[in-house]
Amino acid sequence: MKINLLQAFLIGIIYYLSVNGTPWLSLLGSTVMARPLICGMFVGFVLGNPIQGIIYGAAISLPFLAYISAGGTVPMDPGLAGTLGTALAMASKTTPNVAVTLAVPIGLLGTVIWIMHMTVDISFLHLIDKAAANADYRKADRIQMYLPQIFLLVITVIPAAVVVYFGSGPVAGLLTSLKGVPMHILNVIGGVLPALGIAMILKSINNKNILIYYAIGVILAVYLKLPIIAVSIIGLIIGLLHTQLEFKIVDK
């Protein structure tokens, strides 16, 4: 699949919207857009096959299940992994497992963009201080609203667009040349990485107050053989009931 310039630009926009700190989708929350599944779906729409984008995005999501950004630190970038991983995988028509193998190192490289973003944003604070010292609060508001976003737009859209526009062909050629044992190794690695993400999320819920809900989900899915959508809806209902009861207890 050949990715044209417009598609590459739109994929860059998808990555920009996934970065924590973009205010334009505040109702959804940037953390929702940062999920590889969501990024993969939008990339699929851009490339004309949203179902395929969801399949790749869902596979890439698994290693990032336990991802958390605390105190402004970003150990990896799931938005970049989901966006570029899905785009390059769709362009090269590879398997979801290989897409995971491609996406994980891409996500690690995303930390460079985040560090650059946070470092340069400090200079905008000094401009806001000067505007505030002159009691020019409208200027201060414009600076804090637009300048960081313009800079973030440049350092996210351009690199992502360049990579998918110029890199889709070489990646497809590289994967084609790796057919046989090397490709099997990539598939195996891609199969192990999701297991790591699942293990990390299981470790985080390993306490008596949460693990019981996981056990209920296993019973519903494995023994009662309910579809995953039904299990998800039941989980949502249980979560809402649990939250309501907990707040009532706290109020009392």
Walk me through the structure:
InterPro entries: GatZ_KbaZ_carbometab, PTS_IIC_man. This protein has 252 residues and is mainly alpha-helical. It folds into two domains: 5-204, no CATH class; 207-252, no CATH class. 78% of the residues lie in helices and 0% in strands. It has ten helices and no strands.
Summed up, what is this model?
The protein is mostly helical.
Note the main attributes of this structure.
globular, 0% strand, 2 domains, mainly alpha, 252 residues
- Count of discrete alpha- or pi-helical segments spanning 4 or more residues: 10
Mean pLDDT: 81
The SSE order reads HHHHHHHHHH
Biggest β-sheet description = none
**Unreliable stretches:** none
Q: How far is the first residue's CA from the last residue's CA?
A: 60 Å
What is the radius of gyration computed over CA atoms, rounded to a whole number of angstroms? 21 Å
The domain count comes to 2
Helix content range of the residues, please? over 70%
Structural class: mainly alpha
Shape: globular
In total, how many beta strands? 0
Fraction in beta strands = under 5%
